[in-house]
Amino acid sequence: MKRVPASFLPPITLDSSGAIPMYRQVYEWFRRAIMAGQLRPGQRVPSTRGLAAELKMSRIPVSSAYDQLHEEGYFETFVGAGTCVARSIPCDALDQPVKKQSEASRQVSQNKTPRRISVRAALLRGAPQPWLSNLGAFRVSLPALEHFPVGVWSKLVNRHSRNQTRQSMAYGDAMGYWPLRETVAEYLGAVRAVRCEPSQILVTTGAQQGIQLAGQVLLDANDRVWIEEPGYPGARKALMTAGAQLIPIPVDEEGLNVAEGIRRARAADAVYITPSHQYPLGMTMNATRRMLLLNWAARTGAWIIEDDYDSEYRYGGRPIPSLQGLDTSARVIYVGTFSKVMFPALRLGYVVIPKDLVDAFSTARDANDQFSSTLYQAVMTDFIREGHFARHIRRMRMLYQQRRTALVEAIHKQMPGKLEVIGAEAGMHLVALLPEGVNDLAISKKAAELGIAAMPLTSCYESAPIRGGLILGYGGTDVRQIQQGIRKLGMCI
Amino acid sequence: MKRVPASFLPPITLDSSGAIPMYRQVYEWFRRAIMAGQLRPGQRVPSTRGLAAELKMSRIPVSSAYDQLHEEGYFETFVGAGTCVARSIPCDALDQPVKKQSEASRQVSQNKTPRRISVRAALLRGAPQPWLSNLGAFRVSLPALEHFPVGVWSKLVNRHSRNQTRQSMAYGDAMGYWPLRETVAEYLGAVRAVRCEPSQILVTTGAQQGIQLAGQVLLDANDRVWIEEPGYPGARKALMTAGAQLIPIPVDEEGLNVAEGIRRARAADAVYITPSHQYPLGMTMNATRRMLLLNWAARTGAWIIEDDYDSEYRYGGRPIPSLQGLDTSARVIYVGTFSKVMFPALRLGYVVIPKDLVDAFSTARDANDQFSSTLYQAVMTDFIREGHFARHIRRMRMLYQQRRTALVEAIHKQMPGKLEVIGAEAGMHLVALLPEGVNDLAISKKAAELGIAAMPLTSCYESAPIRGGLILGYGGTDVRQIQQGIRKLGMCI
């Protein structure tokens, strides 16, 4: 049994009018707290001296009350642990308040009509996704955690944690820790041809918060946003928190069909897009489409939310510069994350914001959750500056390329003709299309029961897809797991 | 000069048609990248072998290109650093792209009409608050960071960081880390008479996110919320992100005037309230008012967002149980934080959610920013379970009581009759009312110039207050600073 430290006592309220003797009030208070289950068997109680001091009263009534509680078996004394609530309090006496509470909550849940919540919140709730409930083979977005340099990382964590200053423990900047913002600006300029200054970088808790903030700052309820069809479900949810109306625009082998978007909703207020590596299908948006999109945004005043996820990993040798770097009208909000290159529990990402919007984003971040934890921001800065980050990306690029090859081979060998692999050689997942008429949701559910985390392509569509498929992550799945996983998947299909 | 690691290169695109020799394309690419400032003086470039492998081409054209770049002075070789961009590239050549960019951004900022953002985001932007720009004397909400047990804490951080597992590095639960949720439920039950199970605890990044999430889940745009007048500005901002309409309800010495609230807006959808220690005035809501408020909520179906900030610190010896514990209709959302008891940069808080709303809050948290960083959640759990938390609170309670006494004495001694101290003996700040007609905003601004972080009472009002005042935090201000600070404040008044 865990012990609650002695100071954690329910509030004690005493009547100082003198009508009831103090010792009696203290005694009654403990008896009631024990019977109500607020104090648990074995829990330590304060010393008589400590309690008297806390209640600002003489020690004598407290001692009298304790004596009586001992005599009646409510208190026991254990060597080394001081006075505790007795372990032998009959359990049925203790059950009462629990029963009471569950009755109250039963009343609430018996209430047939669910209680009113916001429209946004109600719309967000979807069907359960059993494929996300395990970390098994093919879990999308999961990196090769077993290859993360935990030793190097924890040395940096330890260094910063030991040397915390008043400044690093106090309230931080809503935009983020300045040295990290400098480092990210430098990194994005060099690797992704993003044009920005450190003052335009907002450190977030991940891409999800970046998209959510963009929605909140740029969109009012019922404003219209183009989203890719199929597209990233996380982005749909983030934009729904702003009350935005989502307009699905089809993607083809050249990326988002911009002309079709203009036909369907020319006056839309924004677009969410994954141009480097379309989520989930994996194609790269070509140059013509990019110019079309930027021109549309410049002419109509629409915002472009560019999610550049997985851009670190291209195995074809031809990285594509970001849309942000091509944009001359400052209409692109560029969103990125460290979750997948580092590890998801890090909770660090970034947004590159047009200069005239920096203030609005900063204010919104402050209103939502103030700022990101400083420690990890400082550690991440050193991790990049000391070269560990670039080294880790290089190593993972080779590893993921091998895993991708192994996955494609396993699919071709074990399920010849059944699954069709699509998408560019990039990122940490691929899409395997199923034969027409096969229900991917059913297969993903069955696979989840076998511990396989294969995500159904259907979950990325607003409307029903023509052909189902499975999104297979290979970043966090080693070659042996890939082979076993494909065998198990074969059994499900 | 910092060195960008070698792998951070802008994307290289080569034409493989054979029209231009490969060595020439590589040479041209580097020359342009250097002239455009994408590669900086002193920056390392990949080895010829590395680049050839990355581009999937023979090493010979790469070596030829490098030779020419060396010859023309674009590259230099430093012992131990390999090949780098020369440090002597004329600076005026490098300035060009920067100029170009600032022209583009000047165009944007010259655009007289600011570009359209959401109504919510535009409303959030307020006047600058110079008193928040320093960590000087009287900074509100700042704890005594110099007394935080950094040694104990960093040992726990180090232990968890070194032993990270796949599970602790991967995606976590949107509701939080289970052992922390258990620990928080136990703590709140014992100390604050909160009635909840661990499944009702949502771990947040702080009280701010708790309030923001409550607004998002419970309120649609233009839904009406009672707020305390004066009240906590952070809560106003959080509720504004949901598009809520704020209805200021006056507080008096018994707390929020519930009858007045019912008169002004009986059908409001929610109330935000600080019953234990009203922010900023410091009174405690009495029992009658509490019952009135709970009855109103039960009858009308309104939600109560209870912010129980600073409840750890009461120097009068009579803690008041939470509203949540009195509520029999499950209408209270209870918000708390570790920021002030521990340190703000920790970014950990919690919400206690009625059982039937758990799913909606969890989905909303996932859509906003997924989950809180796992490391600190695990460390916080141990910090509480090993008794450090209770010990730290006890020590700080004594310290803050001393600091409060010193502050009240300094005010009475140095400014007799000028400032009137109000509020219960609790928390980490007090309010000192100014003589009538004195402008608190002007005094706070003047004080900020002297490095004093005294917050004006006016900033907590929606309408103009009858009497101005200063909110003086004493948690993070030691006795010497308090005395000096009051002397400086005296000069400003």
Short synopsis of the structure:
Chain A has 493 residues and is an alpha/beta fold.
Please tag this protein with its features.
homodimer; 493 residues; Arc Repressor Mutant, subunit A; Aspartate Aminotransferase, domain 2; 3 domains; 42% helix; elongated; disordered N terminus
Strands ordered across the widest β-sheet of chain A:
3-10-9-8-7-4-5-6
Record field, number of beta strands of chain A: 14
What is the radius of gyration of chain A? 29 Å
Strand fraction of chain A: 5-15%
CATH topology name of the largest domain in chain A, in short, is Aspartate Aminotransferase, domain 2
Largest interface summary: A-B, 125 and 125 residues
Report the average pLDDT across residues of chain A: 89
- Would you identify the CATH architecture of the largest domain in chain A? 3-Layer(aba) Sandwich
CATH superfamily of the largest domain in chain A: Type I PLP-dependent aspartate aminotransferase-like (Major domain)
Structure description:
- Two copies of one chain form a homodimer.
- With 493 residues, the first copy, chain A, is an alpha/beta fold.
- Chain A folds into three domains: 1-112, Arc Repressor Mutant, subunit A (Orthogonal Bundle), CATH 1.10.10; 130-142 and 393-492, Aspartate Aminotransferase, domain 1 (Alpha-Beta Complex), CATH 3.90.1150; 149-386, Type I PLP-dependent aspartate aminotransferase-like (Major domain) (Aspartate Aminotransferase, domain 2, 3-Layer(aba) Sandwich).
- Chain A is 42% helix and 13% strand.
- Chain A has 17 helices and 14 strands.
- The first copy, chain A, has helices at residues 22-35, 48-54, 59-71, 91-110, 119-124, 150-162, 166-169, 178-192, 207-218, 233-240, 258-265, 287-300, 358-369, 374-385, 388-414, 440-449, 479-492; strands at residues 75-78, 82-85, 201-204, 224-229, 245-252, 255-256, 270-273, 303-307, 332-337, 349-352, 420-422, 429-433, 455-456, 469-473.
- In chain A, the strands form three sheets. Chain A has an eight-stranded mixed beta sheet, sandwiched between helices. Chain A has a four-stranded antiparallel beta sheet with strand order 11-12-14-13.
- In chain A, strand 4 (224-229), helix 10 and strand 5 (245-252) form a beta-alpha-beta unit.
- In chain A, helix 6 crosses helix 14 (374-385), helix 8 (178-192) packs across helix 14 (374-385) and helix 9 packs parallel to helix 10 (233-240).
- The first copy, chain A, is elongated.
- Chain A starts with 21 loop residues before the first helix and ends with a helix.
- Mean pLDDT of chain A is 89; it is low at 1-6 and 90-111.
